[in-house]
């Protein structure tokens, strides 16, 4: 398994030093040349990582060059890797099932439609012509039957007073007055009961 580490400026400088020494094998030099000019500002990207095996080879070449040149300062591998860390590539998100995506879109459209219907449910006329017409006809017929009943009751009371008084009073005028009084009493009673039940 290939282990990558983050490319730091120290590792990049070591690569440049190894390249300038001229003792780097051609194949290794070709592999290292791509890391010399990398921009390290975004060092969390895949481009800013380097294989650990390459870093170790660079370190071994640096160690060999320092022995040859007689330098006392020897750089250790852990010093070369200072500031770097193991590079872990971010996991790829799994691809979504196309059927699931289509179902989610359908469900989202249904939810949006339900929300829209709920928002506009109290807008616009709520006029149902058939229902309103039926209510008006029932109310009108009830009122007409009340008026008809009121008039028939008054007329019946007048007729009853007029005919019943003919045995007591032979005078026509007195019979009409008694019929009117009876009609008025029944009219007042009807108005009272109509006011209590219909208002």
From TrEMBL:
GO terms for cellular component: endoplasmic reticulum membrane. Keywords: Endoplasmic reticulum, Membrane, Transmembrane, Transmembrane helix. It is found in: Endoplasmic reticulum membrane. It is a multi-pass membrane protein. It comes from the Eukaryota. GO terms for biological process: vacuolar proton-transporting V-type ATPase complex assembly. Its main location: endoplasmic reticulum. The chain crosses the membrane at residues 147-169, 175-195. This is Transmembrane protein 199. It comes from Exaiptasia diaphana.
């Amino acid at each position: 398994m290939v282990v990558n580490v983050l490319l730091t400026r120290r590792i990049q400088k070591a690569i440049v030093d190894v390249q300038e020494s001229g003792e780097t094998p051609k194949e290794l030099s070709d592999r290292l040349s791509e890391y010399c000019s990398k921009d390290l500002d975004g060092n969390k990207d895949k481009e800013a990582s380097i294989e650990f095996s390459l870093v170790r080879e660079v370190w071994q070449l640096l160690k060999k060059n320092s022995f040859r040149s007689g330098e006392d300062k020897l750089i250790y591998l852990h010093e070369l890797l200072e500031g770097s860390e193991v590079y872990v590539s971010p996991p790829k998100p799994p691809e979504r099932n196309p059927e699931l995506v289509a179902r989610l879109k359908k469900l989202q459209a249904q939810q949006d439609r339900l929300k829209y219907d709920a928002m506009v449910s109290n807008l616009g006329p709520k006029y149902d012509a058939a229902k309103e017409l039926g209510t008006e006809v029932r109310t009108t017929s009830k009122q007409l039957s009340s008026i008809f009943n009121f008039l028939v009751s008054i007329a019946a009371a007048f007729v009853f007073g007029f005919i019943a008084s003919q045995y007591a009073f032979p005078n026509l005028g007195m019979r009409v007055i008694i019929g009117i009084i009876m009609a008025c009493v029944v009219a007042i009673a009807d108005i009272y009961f109509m006011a209590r039940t219909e208002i």
